[in-house]
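Weekly modeling sync, notes
Attendees: AB, CL, MP (scribe)

Item 1: holo prediction request
CL wants a bound-state model with farnesyl diphosphate before deciding which constructs to order. AB pointed out that an apo prediction alone won't tell us much about the pocket. Agreed to run with the ligand included and paste results into these notes for async review.

Input as submitted:
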Amino acid sequence: MSLIDQIDRNRVPEHVAIIMDGNGRWAKQRGNQRIFGHKNGVKAVKAATEAAGEIGVKYLTLYAFSTENWNRPKSEVDALMGLLVDTINSEMETLLKNGIRVLTIGDRSMLPPDVQRKLNDVIVRTASCTTITTVLALNYGSRLEITEAVKKIAIDAQQGKLSAEQITPVTISDYLYTANIPDPALLIRTSGELRLSNFLLWQLAYTELYFTPVLWPDFTKDDFFKAIIDYQKRERRFGKTSEQL
Ligand code: FPP
């Protein structure tokens, strides 16, 4: 039986998040520059999006550029930004045809102006797409996100829009970039690293974690389906006992 047929369509995670890791090592193994790995990583982005759409995942969040990634050599940062613009240009029609809505999380105001314009363009043009939402984490870092949320809550409290007693975990969620997006049910990280790297720390509180040694450019639709099958074998208890479920 093919992998996709082993998936229970009634228990597909609504939101899958991915830390796409291993592009640099993949390129190095082939005696190439790191950007060669990123370019091939775009193929895996397409494969994961297609696979997610096929089985009915509604949100796919991809860690494309972290707040820490600015520390990489300027040539690599520039190449990643260029790749983002090129990919949006080449994929725009496919996104619209397949009903793929694009959103971002992270501080876009720090990105180069042409990248910001392109992102605004794709966000507006795909706004009414309903098959799947691809959330690109760009200049994203969880601690910064939470810090910014706390600042906004403090300002709203100062201005009398809410009181300290009214603040609940839901309030915090509502002030994050991911307000209105359900928490991920499954997190996938490629390349064998066992870390969260400042990604969605609040939102991953009850998320199932799946680590694979596959380097991101090698990640296929079947690798995505394997992660879903593994997820479906697990019991999500949210602090309860098995008997209470
Ligand atoms: C991690 O590999 C990957 C990144 C920091 C960038 C991911 C970007 C893409 C896949 C392409 C652009 C994305 C879109 C959505 C068009 P690494 O460089 O940290 O690899 P290493 O750990 O082997 O060095």
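Recorded for review: The chain has seven helices and six strands.
Action items: CL to compare against the apo run; MP to circulate these notes.
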